[in-house]
Amino acid sequence: MPQHGFPPRNVQRRREIVALAARMMAEDGVADFGFAKRKAARQLGASDTEALPTNAEIEAELRTWQALYHGEELAGRLAIMRHTAARLMRELAPFRPYLCGGVLDGTAGRYAEIELDLFPDSAKEVEIFLLDAGLEFTHRDIRKPLAVAPELVLSLEWDDIPARLSLYPASVERSAPRQGRARLAQLEDLIANT
Fold this sequence. Notes:
6 helices, Beta Polymerase, domain 2
């Protein structure tokens, strides 16, 4: 019986796209679900009109892949990254940090970085804070067209782990989606219960 209302051939193609996209994310360091599934579809010769899998389908396959091939290694790295993220969030507390991405949801692979959304009064004050702390950082391009795009995206190393700081206007903090983000207290609860 066809799943998702697609003919059997498309169901098989969809499964192939899911598997390849998950492998790309696990092995090649691809961090964006949309990019992974579009690239997988192109490599498999799927047309743009074929229905692409959902992010949830790819995430489920990614978790399976990681458990099969990198279970213990990734569990240890994830624990280290969560502790490191908590320390970084404490340092950046004046800028109202939220953890998001693979370190929060547990899908952080070998090439993952700590992803924090910050809501400072001004992006400049974060840069000044980092300079005063003697931390080197670089500016990154803002790639995704979002409903609310960050003003600035910075990359840095914190305890030898890469981190990406997306700086949003303080005025959008209340309207920013809560799902997929965690404050420091929520991260500490997650660490304590893992």
